Amino acid sequence: STSHSLSMSDASGRGKGRVSARKSGGINSSSSSSSVCVGISGSAGAAIVGGARGRVKGRSTNKQDVDKVKGVRGTGDSVSKGRVGRTKNRRRSGRGNPEKLVTLSEEQRLKKEEERKAAEVIAAAEAERQRLEEDLKKLQLARDAKRQEQKELCDQVQEALDSLSTTITLVESRKRHRKELVAENLIILRKEFEASKKKLKSDLKKCTAFVKKIKSGAAWTMKPTDMERDVASLNLSRYVEEVAAALLEVKLKVADLPTVVALCLAMHSRYADFLPSLVPSLWGVIHAKANEETAKLRRIYLRLLTEFLLNGILVETKQLLKLIAEVSGANNGYAVSDAMMVLSFARAAGFEILSTTPQNILKEVKLLKQQIQELEIFLVEGKCLDVPDNAAPEDIPQVITPELSMKAKDILEKIKETLKERAVTPVISDVFQMHCKGAFDTLASTLVETHTKLQKLEKRCEQDRLLQGNLSEAREKGLADARKLKENLQKSVESLSQILDRPLPLLQEDEEEEESGEGGPGLELWTKGEDDSHDFGPFDDEETRSFYCDILDLLTTIPPALLGMCDAEIKKIQEENVRKYGVGSDVVVDDSNAD
């Protein structure tokens, strides 16, 4: 029984050790195993007393070990309990308190809502700032545009003033020259020159250099005033014919005419034999047969002679009248023979000879009057001309300045008197005007006809290009020549219209619609009509058209012997054909009896 109790105690001890080891979670496994080993060794003693002592010692040792294990386990349990407690507290704080969780979510939502609203406010403020900047830019652009319009208006008025001032100065200069070169005054001028020519430079070197300058064309780069000064400083009595010959040798341009006229004025007022040495040669070139080399020179010489008439160098107008009547075709129903000569004369003559105010002067006068009136209305309404830089665009005035208005009024008064000046008598002026207007009417009607023919030719060429792929060289050249003719005619008519103040002819575009089938234009059958002497359909000439379209009469082209017929039989067949089908263009092919 004693051994049995010991065994039970040992087993109990061992069981408690195992349970303690399990509870400690394996942390003090060495201590537990130690106590078990001690308990087993104590039960293995041979003597009973020794065994009892071993059991008592084993129990004490077991108790100490258990206490140690419990202590260690308590420490571990306290640590683990603290961790678990904190975790549970955390879980309880979220799970166990739903009101607090809802409060946190609401706060986050409100915070995000506030952030969103703040971002929207910032974005709206930025958009408003950009909108204001754009509005300011647009406003500034509108101001700049209005100011630019006002500046352009003032510049336009200033250009009109400058143009009218130039016209007034030129007309007054011509008027003064005509007055100075009247026969009585011309005699006085030449006498004064004869009295003072001994004081002038007459050495060979300077006079020869002056003549060479004219021959080379270098003299035409000089200003008219400089040319007059050079002639006034030299005694050219021995070089009059050389100067006239030099003018004929050099190839003049339209831009050279002011200086040339200044030279001729100075020479004519001093030397009586200068004009007889020059004018006949000019007329000789004009009346000569025109060719490519002399065509331009003829027009320049005509303008030069017209300038002579305007400045009083020439007084006789018979030759000029005869020339204009000839080139305008006045004796042949105004069948114009040289439109460029008529145009050159009209450009040089102007209102001083033709008594017609050019359209450009009328437009400039109208512009000045209109702007003066608008300025007066603006001032009557009490509006201010000086506006600040930040003024609204609609407040910026669109009128000229008072200074320009005063200049415009002064120019209008002068131009009104200037337009009344005439270089010839009213009768001569009416004749010149009649010839120029007759030529204009002819050229205008010719332009309309040429325009219509060109449209038809272009349409035909386009059809041929579609049918054949390209045009023949002759057709291309004909089309280019027609276009060039129309272009030259249009330029001449427009210039004469502006000079004579006549309306331009209306060039109507061809609006005739071509008949078309369901699938497009398709093929077109050509039939010869009465007025189709030059209309060959899709063919280039009559020979080609006849080859493809005309059917040969075999009875007349093939000998009767080859046909196996006699003359009587052939004649009978021909009479039958005439009776059934007709002759020439009246032939109608009857296919009803064809095989």
Model description:
This protein is mainly alpha-helical and 595 residues long. It contains 21 helices and no strands. Residues 1-63, 68-85, 87-96, 513-523 and 585-595 have low confidence and may be disordered. It has helices spanning 2-23, 29-42, 48-95, 98-180, 183-196, 204-216, 224-233, 240-249, 257-268, 274-287, 295-311, 318-328, 339-354, 359-380, 402-418, 426-468, 473-500, 542-549, 554-557, 560-563, 567-581. The protein is 71% helix and 0% strand. The chain starts with a helix and ends in a 14-residue tail after the last helix.
Question: What is the topology?
Answer:
Elements: H1 2-23, H2 29-42, H3 48-95, H4 98-180, H5 183-196, H6 204-216, H7 224-233, H8 240-249, H9 257-268, H10 274-287, H11 295-311, H12 318-328, H13 339-354, H14 359-380, H15 402-418, H16 426-468, H17 473-500, H18 542-549, H19 554-557, H20 560-563, H21 567-581
Helix pairs in contact: 1-2, 1-3, 2-3, 4-14, 4-15, 6-8, 7-9, 8-10, 9-11, 10-11, 11-13, 12-16, 13-16, 13-17, 14-15, 16-17
Descriptors:
595 residues, mainly alpha, 21 helices, 71% helix, flat, disordered N terminus, disordered C terminus
The residue-averaged pLDDT reads 79
Content of β-strand: under 5%
Low-confidence stretches: 1-63, 68-85, 87-96, 513-523, 585-595
What is the H-and-E element order? HHHHHHHHHHHHHHHHHHHHH
Describe the structure in brief.
The protein contains 21 helices and no strands. The model is unreliable at 1-63, 68-85, 87-96, 513-523 and 585-595 (pLDDT under 50).
